[in-house]
Design a protein that fits this description.
α6 runs antiparallel to α12 (351-365) and α10 (303-333) packs antiparallel against α12 (351-365). This protein has a two-stranded antiparallel sheet. By secondary structure, it is mainly alpha-helical. It has helices at residues 2-32, 35-69, 71-104, 111-140, 157-161, 166-195, 200-234, 236-243, 276-282, 303-333, 339-348, 351-365, 378-381, 389-415; strands at 145-147, 153-155, 249-250, 254-261, 266-273, 288-289, 370-372, 376-377. The longest helix has 35 residues, at 35-69. The protein is globular. A hairpin with a 5-residue loop joins β1 and β2.
Length: 420
Amino acid sequence: MAMSLAFHILFAVAGIAMPLLMVLAEGMWRRTGEAVWLELAKRWSKGVAILFGVGAVSGTVLSFELGLLWPGFMEFAGPIIGMPFSLEGFAFFLEAIFLGVYLYGWEKVSPRVHLASGVGVLVCGMLSGIFVVCANAWMNTPAGYGFDADGELWVDVWTAMWNPSAVASGLHMTVASFEAVGFAVAGMHAFGLLRAPDSVFHRSALRIALPVACVAAVLQLFTGHHSAQQIAENQPLKLAAAEAQWETQTRAPLTLGGWPDEEAEETTLGLEIPGALSLLAFNSLDAEVQGLEEWEPEDRPPIAVVHVAYQLMIGAGMTLLGVAGLALVLRLRKRGWPTWFLRLLILVSPLGLVAIEAGWTVTEVGRQPWVIVGVMRTADAVTPMPHLVVPFTLFSLLYAVLGVVVVVLLRRHLYLTVPA
């Protein structure tokens, strides 16, 4: 399931963010009449179609795995998270319809309808991601359910879906998608511009992808802070694991780097900033932050995994924020994109996706040993079926083949027969 999620999420974030790029390109074409924008819109829309198709396959596999691998979880939680998953299904099918209109409606519908269909792809892609995040957020902060006097489950669908961590998680994930995809696309076209320095096509692509990435990088600073404060309030164990905070204390330090030793219950080789964790988590230097000592070892997640993933996410995000600031400086100087900056874009282009994978590792591993925090342990939710190594191997091979096919198609799509 973890392997499937790690593969699928790459296509999910593309489905959220790529439609914005194609809509902006079409908007530029309709405003200026320049053919390069039309070419960009059509090529990006075909890229969206490729990624959408593979995402649909991997998402279907996940839906089967959810039922087959987690029978205990689905028996209990199915009636509670059924609504956000149902809404995600509606959003997915509407996205497919709008994408069909966009791909094949260039000469068949009016300009306004065509552009509106692209906006429809964008909105439905974002809603699809948000609804899935709402369901996952419920597993971290369960709410909106209970049992009556007869032991029957009752569900407040609205409260369950918009549980305490839903909004913060949804915002953080959505902005992360625009940041990751923006930098990934910018890196691809920076590579094309290095190969063909006079290419108007790649230069125009950077004019859209890079601003989207940079704006998202700045916004992510705020959504990440909001999400961290929500975790501090509602998931203190996850915060303690992410920061490798062993002791409960006021003026808790923020630990940069370091390696947690779970036996000795200490973090070595880390750089501590006194009071910074209390300030960031609760807006007060004197705030108390709960340490891992508050929980028994068997109730804690794997501290090293969570801490390292969290540090990787923060490091990648801050690096991209620095690149965004550098891009702004270069843009204000109006001297074009120097070769060294294009190479830097290529170098950092995967970091947004790395940060997303690391962030989801923090989210999923950070709530262990619970699949529903405080309600159901992971060990009680999974299937006892043996020999799962067989389907695991088969699906791994499937994902490997799909990954290679996508890379080949996108490479051919972006760099072969590209107009000057």
